[in-house]
Amino acid sequence: MKKVVKKSSKKSKKKVVVAKPVKKLEKTIPVVSQEKKIKKQEKPKHSFFGFSRKDSKKKEKVEPSKQVEEDILATSPLKQLNSPKTYDKNKKVVNTADRPRLKTQVPGFDVLIEGGIPEGSAVLIEGGPGSGKTIFCLEVAKQACENGKKVLYMSFEEPEYRLEGHMKSFGANVEKYKKQGVLRVERFNALDIARSVEALLSEAKKELLIDVQPVLIPSDFEPDIVLIDSLSSIASAFSGESSRFRIYMEQLFRYLESHKMTSFLIREVSNPSHVGTNFVEQGEAVSFLSDGIIAIYNVFYPGGTRKRALEVVKMRGTSIDRKTVEMEITKHGMKVFPNKVLKGNFVLT
After folding, report:
1. Least CB-packed of 31, 71, 161, 262 within 10 Å?
2. Which of 315, 314, 311, 319 is nearest to 338 (CA)?
3. Which domains, ranges and CATH numbers included, belong to the chain?
4. Is the distance from CB of 342 to CB of 316 less than 8 angstroms?
5. In the beta sheet, which residues pair with residue 114?
């Protein structure tokens, strides 16, 4: 039996709409899509920070700046940083063991991490005053420049001439590195960073991410290695605004990762944070965001003897030698003794 199909009359303006099957959305929704979703749901007459009339009676009003902070933290893609998976430019999973390694060439250190740090890692260098954190980073900078790597040393404490003087004192040819365009040492003001982040958050409104580059990274220099001295100075500029510091740190880590920059970030701690002491991170969360943690200690022995020690607390993408070993600073730079494990009675600070 043949089906009879009636032709629609010319006078009829109605169109027959055939419902198309709806594609399943992926579990991971990009930030941009989330923003579009927010725009669709909101009415033009209501601000980004307000609530609908139905909700206004039930929910308390949230301050604009606080609302932006919460939105950024809630939708931040930085949560992927804690995943053991690493992705390349085409968003394909890459085995972290297959990533190229950056050899620090600090005498005795690379043995503790299977020969080098996986490139693109963000490594936290923490320790007390005078432990040798800055010297360790300057030693890394020197060796990297010798191998043609572009290095950006960002100081929030010491002036450029003093840091360059430290490098020269243990054999670095700073003038040569500058002429070759592989070294840049710059001093920054942490308060300027805090003010810029404040301004960006105030203007964010419908944007859930802030642009880190104009706030921190010079646009005319593309480094392979970034050294930041120190996070403690930046954190102090965000005094009383720990959530904003966390926003900034998340975006900074994201920027460094997306540009495949290996970074070393110094943090000052009064007591070792990984040897059982009570330590409060004040919402910074940098320990979790970082790929590696290298702790440098001051060691006190009975009788007044004082030494230095080093420990690799964690390093994603490589096996580590889990032990605290001796290290020393000489006129030639820093030296680690991987076979000299700390023994006896001592106190770490």
Report:
1. 161
2. 311
3. 34-75 (no CATH), 77-348 (3.40.50.300)
4. no
5. none
Reading the block at residue 1, the tokens are: 């039996």
Residue 49 pLDDT more than 60? no
pTM above 0.85, yes or no: no
**Contact indicator for 48, 205 with CB cutoff of 8 Å:** yes
Q: pLDDT category, 138, cuts 50, 70, 90?
A: very high
The encoded tokens of residue 326 equal: 């001796």
What is the mean pLDDT of the segment spanning 144-156? Answer: 96
Q: Are 292 and 117 in contact (CB under 8 A)?
A: yes
Strands (DSSP E) contained in the chain are 86-87, 93-94, 101-102, 117-118, 122-127, 151-155, 183-187, 225-229, 262-268, 292-300, 306-315, 325-330, 333-341, 347-348
β-pairing verdict for 347-348 and 292-300: antiparallel
Structure tokens at 221: 């220099």
Q: What's the 3-state SS for 15-27?
A: CCCCCCCCCCCCC
Instruction: State how far the alpha carbon of 122 is from the alpha carbons of 72, 196, 288, 291, 316, in Å.
Output: 21, 23, 11, 5, 10
Question: Contact 107/249 with Cβ under 8 angstroms?
Answer: no
Q: What is the pLDDT of residues 76-102, one digit of tens each?
A: 433 344 444 444 545 444 555 568 999
Please report the DSSP string for 42-82 in residue order: S-TTS-TT---HHHHTTS----HHHHHHHHHHHH-GGGGGG
